[in-house]
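FORM 7B: Structural annotation worksheet

SECTION A. Query
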Amino acid sequence: RLIRAPGDATPRVLLERMIVDAMALALMVQREGDLAGLVTVARGVTHFLPAGAGAAHQQAMRAALVGLQPDAGSADFQEMFVQLGRRVRKRALLILLTDLSDPLYEDELATGLRALASRHLVLVGMARDADLHGLFEGDAPADLRGAVARLAGEMSMRGLRDAARRLSRLGAEFALLPAGDLGMGLYQRYLNLKRR
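SECTION B. Predicted structure
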């Protein structure tokens, strides 16, 4: 689906960042001896690659990800949940990369998340916009426009903290990480979950 673009970044640039993070995460997981799969979702499930490893699997993942385009439609999370329920039988760590800045998407995701989290470990990852700050983070705003932007950032951060609490109650973990560190941050969360 179309990812909200902060500042000068376009939805395509943000999608490309998420693609790079997804591929890097898959490679790191495979180096740990685990398998990695891929599900992409737009108005429906567009790709479903079961967990695997090796050069051919990595190439299939790259081929699926390279062709992705931002989509202004709503992501069909329900179809994703149905597909995962049917095709992923063994307990697995499922890492969902998405943008929950719009509460509507969070509601759609939460609808099927409880059943998924009862069978699997679920980690929802989101890249934090560089211009998204809480009210009292960083230097004081220089002018009224900066103050309004900071207040809007605080409201967004509050919404994301609320989303994290709701997802936690459903059995999922939420990771809001800097855009440039999403892949590595999720890898660290994966390692921590693996040690449990």
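SECTION C. Observations
Confidence is low (pLDDT under 50) at residues 1-8. The first strand starts at residue 36 and ends at 41.

SECTION D. Sign-off
Analyst initials: ____
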